[in-house]
Amino acid sequence: MTLETTSVGSTGLAKDEYPSLTHANYALGLLFVTYLLSFLDRQVLTLLVGPIREQFGLSDFQFSLLQGAAFAVTYTIAGIPLGRLADRYSRRWIIAGSIFSWSVMTCACGWAKSYSQLFLARMGVGIGEAGLSPAAYSIITDSYRPDHMGYALSFYKMGVTVGGGLALVLGGMIYDFYLAQPSIEWPLLGELKPWQATLITAGLPGFVLCILMGTIQEPSRKGVAISKTSAMDGQKSFPFMTVIRFLWQRKRLYGVLFLGSSFLSIANYGSAAWYPEMLARNYGLSKSETGSAFGMIYLIAGTIGVMAGPFLASRLQRAGYADANVRTVLIASIVSILPATLAPLMGSAESTLLVLWPTVFISMTYLGIMAVSFQLITPNEMRGQTTAIYIFVTNIMGMAVGTSVLAGFTDFLFQDDLALPYSIAAVNAVFYPLAAALFWYCLPAYRASLAEAGNWRV
Description:
mainly alpha; Growth Hormone, Chain: A; 18 helices
C-alpha cells in the first residue's frame, strides 16, 4: 500500500489552518495542568512507602508492585485501544473521561482496606491515565506549526517534573498535616489513616479539571496520509496491524528508539520511586523534609532540564545535524552516567541532594524532544496508536520493571533494607550506558525517516 500526504513540508504537517495562538496556548496550558495532576496522583504513593508497608506488612518488592506493575500494566495495555480512539474520535472528550476515571480510582486507593483492594484501585488509576497522552500529543501536534512544536510538547512534558515534584512537596505537607491530627473522620468514609486521607485529597481536583477540558478547541488533523486505494480512502485512522507493519518496516528506528527510551525510563522511574524512601530510611528525614528537598529538585532542575532539551536540539539543528532530537538525547544519556551513579553513594543526605541537582537537570532533557522525535516521522492517523505503543514499551519497562528491579536488588541481592543507595547506583550504572548505545545505533535510521516524512510507504 502506498500512502501520500495531503500536507506540505518535510514533516508532513500543514502550514495553515492552525488554531490561533490564544486557543492553542489555552489548550496547551490546560493539558499541562492535566498531565501535572496525573503525575501527582501516580507519584504521591512514593512518599507513603513506610505507612503502607506497616499497614499491610509488605516487603519493598511487594510495595514496588503497587508503585510499578499494578499501575504500569493496565496503563500500557489500555493505552493501545485508547490511542486508536484518539486517532478517530474527539480527543478532548477522551481526555475528560480519562481524568474522571483516574480521579475516582485515586480516591478509591485511599478507601482501600487491604493490599488487594489497593492493588486493584491502583490498576484502575492506570486505566484512567492511559487515555491522556495519546490524545494530548495529537492535539498539541495539530495545534502548533513545526518550528514551535518542540517547545510546545516539551512544555507539556514538564508535567512530569512539575507534577512529580509537587507530588512530593505537597504530598509530604498533606501527609504530615493529617499525621498531626488526633483522628481523621470524614463524612460517609468514617475513620481514615493519614496515608488514606492523603490519597483521597490528591484525587479530588481531577473532578473540576475534567469539566474544564470540554472548553478547549479541537484542532483539525494535519500531516494526514491517505491511501491511494479506495478501500482506505477517507478513513480517519489506519488499522492497528497497518500501524504495526509500518513500525516493523522501520524497526531499526522505532524499535531501537523505544527500547532506548525504556532504558532511560528504568533509570529515571526507578530512582524517582525510591529516592524519597532512601532519604527517609537511610538518613531519617521526615515525609515533609523528604518531599520538600527531593521534590524541589524535580520541580526546578527537572523542569529547566525538560525545556533545555528543545533549546539544545535547535542549536544542533542550526549546526547542520538533521538528527538533532535523537542526538541531544544521546548526549544527555552519556553525560548522565557519572552523576546518576555517584549521587546515591555520597554518604549523606546533603551531599546526595547536592549531586542530584545537575543529575536531574541532565537526565530530564530527553522527555520533550523524545516525544517530538517520533511525532515528526509518523503519519497523523498513526500518531495516537504509535504514542500508545511508545507508552506501552517505556512504561512497562520504566514503571513496572524499573521500580521492581531496584527493589529486587535491595530484597534479593543485597538483602538489606539499608542497601537502597547501592541498588539505585547499580540500576543507573547499567541502564544509562545501554540507552546511549541504542541512541547512537539508531541515528542513521532516524535521518532516513526524516527524509521520508510526508512520502510514507507501507
